[in-house]
Structure formats: C-alpha cells, structure tokens
C-alpha cells in the first residue's frame, strides 16, 4: 500500500541569510515598485490638459477678434456702398433735370404770355409734376434780399426805395434738389441810391424803433 505524498505550497524565493520574518513579509507584500510613479503621471497629464485648454482659449479669442473685425469691415462696406448708391442716384437725377431746365423755362415763358393752352398745357403741367416728384424745387422771388450763394445778378441798378441789395426782377428762376442748387436764380438787382435821404417809410420805421418822434 502506497502512502499519498501531501501537497506543498510554493514559497517565494528568499535570499539566503534572510530571517523567517523577512520571508513572511516577502510572501505577504506584493511588489510596489510602480506605486510612486502614479501620482507623478497624473500631475503631468493634468498639466498637459491645462496647456491644451489655454491654447484652445487663445485660439478662440483670436478667431473671435478676426470675426469681429470682419463683421465691422462688412458693415462699413455696406454703409459705403449705400452712400455711394445714393450719391450716384442724386447725380444722375440732377443731370437729367439740368437738361430739362431749358424746357421748363420755355413752359414758364409760355405761361406768362398766355400761350399755355390746350394739349400743350396738359403736357407741360405733367412734366412739371414729374420734375417736382423727382425733387426739383423752384426758387427766386422779386423783393427778396440778394444772396450771392443762390442768386446770379445779370442786371444792376440803383433805387431810392430799397435799403439793401434787392432782387427787383427774376429773369430766370433758380432750381435746387434738396440742399443742392443746380442753377442759381438769375436776377436783376437794385442797390440803395448813393447819398439818398431816408424815405418817409424809413423815417417812420426809425421813429417806431426809437419810441416815436421827438416833441419840441
């Protein structure tokens, strides 16, 4: 009859000369050679992520600035195009209406002579209406003070009944579009008579301003 050989447990290699306590500690404690490296690896990874995040934020700020500059340039471009479009339109309208001024002058002379009748009257009035819708305005009246910025003096005389240079006759009316004068009013002007004594009207006005005539 054969006796069974009892099993045995493998024990870790123990250096020669080691005590039994050292052998037990070696059997119970696993190797910890890689333990201290773990915290250093986490810190390095965190630092790398932080650097990448800072780089992404910097790139985002740069792209945002580029987008804002591009948007501002586009808005300026739109305003410039709109301004140029309006200017070109005004120039075109002014050029067209300037070419029509002689026709409007003929219509005005025909009206003054009573020749604006029948079908010609209807056509003339329609033309004047269209010109007015396009912004054409007529100016220049007898008796208004002479203004060299809107009047062109073609005739000059002296008159005792004026106190300043005055438009006494409108030879050709002036025309403007908005604030732009496309033709000054061509007028005859009169200046006060040199050395003329004040008229009764002027004396009355001076008395009113001074509080009435002096009483002796």
UniProtKB/TrEMBL annotation:
- Entry's Pfam families? GrpE (PF01025)
Q: Do you know which InterPro entries this protein is assigned to?
A: GrpE, GrpE_CC, GrpE_head
Where does this polypeptide localize? Cytoplasm
GO terms (molecular function) for this protein are: adenyl-nucleotide exchange factor activity; protein homodimerization activity; protein-folding chaperone binding; unfolded protein binding
Q: Where does the chain cross the membrane?
A: none
Q: Where is this region: Disordered?
A: 1-49, 186-216
Q: Which terms are listed as keywords in the entry?
A: Chaperone, Coiled coil, Cytoplasm, Stress response
**What GO CC terms are in its UniProt record?**
cytoplasm
| Stretches of the chain forming a coiled coil according to its record | 53-87
Superkingdom, natural source: Bacteria
Q: Which GO terms describe its biological process?
A: protein folding
Q: Which ranges are annotated Low complexity under compositional bias? A: 17-40
The record's NCBIfam families line, in alphabetical order, gives:
PRK14163.1
Please describe what this protein does: Participates actively in the response to hyperosmotic and heat shock by preventing the aggregation of stress-denatured proteins, in association with DnaK and GrpE. It is the nucleotide exchange factor for DnaK and may function as a thermosensor. Unfolded proteins bind initially to DnaJ; upon interaction with the DnaJ-bound protein, DnaK hydrolyzes its bound ATP, resulting in the formation of a stable complex. GrpE releases ADP from DnaK; ATP binding to DnaK triggers the release of the substrate protein, thus completing the reaction cycle.
Task: Describe the protein's quaternary organization and the partners it interacts with.
Answer: Homodimer.
Family according to the record? Belongs to the GrpE family.
Q: What is the name of this protein?
A: Protein GrpE
The encoding gene = grpE
């Amino acid at each position: 009859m054969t006796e069974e050989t009892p099993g045995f447990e493998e024990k870790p290699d123990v250096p020669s000369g080691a005590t039994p306590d050292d052998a037990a500690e070696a059997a119970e404690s696993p190797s910890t050679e890689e333990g201290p490296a773990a915290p250093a690896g986490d810190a390095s990874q965190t630092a790398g992520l932080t650097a990448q995040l800072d780089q992404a934020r910097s790139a985002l700020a740069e792209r945002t600035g580029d987008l804002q500059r591009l948007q501002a340039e586009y808005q300026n471009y739109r305003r410039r195009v709109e301004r140029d479009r309006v200017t070109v339109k005004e120039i075109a309208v002014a050029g067209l209406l300037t070419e029509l001024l002689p026709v409007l002058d003929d219509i005005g002379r025909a009206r003054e002579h009573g020749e604006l009748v029948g079908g010609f009257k209807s056509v003339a009035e329609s033309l004047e209406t269209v010109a007015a819708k396009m912004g054409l305005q007529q100016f220049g009246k007898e008796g208004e003070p002479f203004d060299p910025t809107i009047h062109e003096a073609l005739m000059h005389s002296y008159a005792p009944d004026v106190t300043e240079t005055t438009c006494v006759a409108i030879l050709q009316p002036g025309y403007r579009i908005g604030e732009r004068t496309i033709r000054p009013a061509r007028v005859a002007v009169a200046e006060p008579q040199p050395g003329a004594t004040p008229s009764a009207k002027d004396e009355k006005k001076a008395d009113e301003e001074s509080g009435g005539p002096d009483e002796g």
